[in-house]
Amino acid sequence: MGRTARRAYDLDEVHIVPSRRTRSSKDVSTAWQIDAYRFDIPMLTHPTDAIVSPATAIRVGELGGLGVLNAEGLWARHADAAEQLRRLADLVSEEDGGSDAVRLLQELHAAPIRVDLLNESIRTVREAGVTVAARVSPQHALERTPDLLAAGVELLVVQGTIISAEHVSRDAAKRAPLNLKEFIADLDVPVIAGGVADYRTAMHLMRTGAAGVIVGYGASGGTTTDDVLGIRVPMASAIADAAAARRDYLDETGGRYVHVIADGDIRTGGDVATAIACGADAVMLGDPLASIDGAPGHGFYWTSAAAHPSLPRSLIWNAASWTTVEMEQLFFGPTSDPSGEVNLFGALRRALAKTGYSDLKEFQKVGLSVQA
After folding, report:
1. CA angle (6 as vertex; 242, 10 as ends), nearest 5
2. Whole-number Å distance between alpha carbons of 37 and 22
């Protein structure tokens, strides 16, 4: 009594309804463009050291996606980042993902960020000829961004577990809170910001001038944000709410389009297709990439929230399948695995074809049903 709760839906509770038309999968496009940057698939990586090194960022770019480096991660703090990640993986294997591994990750992140290492990582990606993207936290965006831009970052991702356009703090005299609207206005590169989980916050972020808004916080099998903070909004509903904000903001501004990017609970081709059908323009892929051959986390996965110095919100868990796959196979197949966990964007292409839509924007109009 006195309180209400809205019924919300996860991605696996929402289903795509075929239309009266089908078409050949050769005649559909999965291309996605944000600002001046065009990609063959609507995908960017969740910015965690578990899956993104300079080498994997390059490979993602070569296959048509966007690899996002964590500018506050181990590649920016340790010259031997690969060795430290192996050390972490060995510890997780010994203790089955307990607190000792999280404690080690916290210690590794306590090392200062070295601009020379950060510049080297960004230069490696840039010289490969793919789009360069990097993530900073809202707390450190002001101090880190000038170095990132000088190094050649083309897309900036400002991402936290929960982000808002207005931060209230009594400690403003010690550290001025990020005014996202002023921050974005001063930049010459597009900014993707998030995560958000509701219509109002999505609308506020769109009004700051962000080119894209991230929905969700990278929820995966190892994410504990709901256990630690009690915060969770089912992804299908969160995406649909942000898409509604995008539509209203488009009307409000007379035509400015802000991209909605789904981050969390996306593991199969069906999840990718359902996220787009609910209104997302692209997905932020996380733990599925832990299974690729050469993943820097050696099959283990965590989000950046695992390294929080006082309140970690992610386990370090074994996200890989029994066998590793090549990244190209994960994205485009072929596969004999009927689970939907491989050939993710081949599945998206097939979903468009089976429902008769030719591109992603059209596919956002597909019919949906929910479980009773």
Report:
1. 60
2. 30
Residue 315: CA atoms inside 13 Å, Cβ hemisphere, count?
16
pLDDT digits (tens, 9 = 90+) for 158-168: 998 666 655 55
Burial call 261-289: b when 16+ CB within 10 Å, e when fewer: bbbbbbbbbbbbbbbbbbbbbbbbbbbbb
Cα gap 313→318, rounded to integer Å: 16
End-to-end alpha carbon distance in the chain: 25
What is the chain's length? Answer: 372
> HEC states along 182-246?
HHHHCCCCCEEEEEECCHHHHHHHHHCCCCEEEEEEEECCCECHHHHHCCCCCHHHHHHHHHHHH
Do 300 and 316 form a contact (C-beta atoms < 8 A)? yes
Read off the DSSP letter of residue 292: B
* Amino acid at position 215, single letter: V
**pTM (2 d.p.):** 0.94
- 1-to-4, 5, 230 alpha-carbon distances in Å: 8, 11, 21
Beta pairing partners, 15: 369
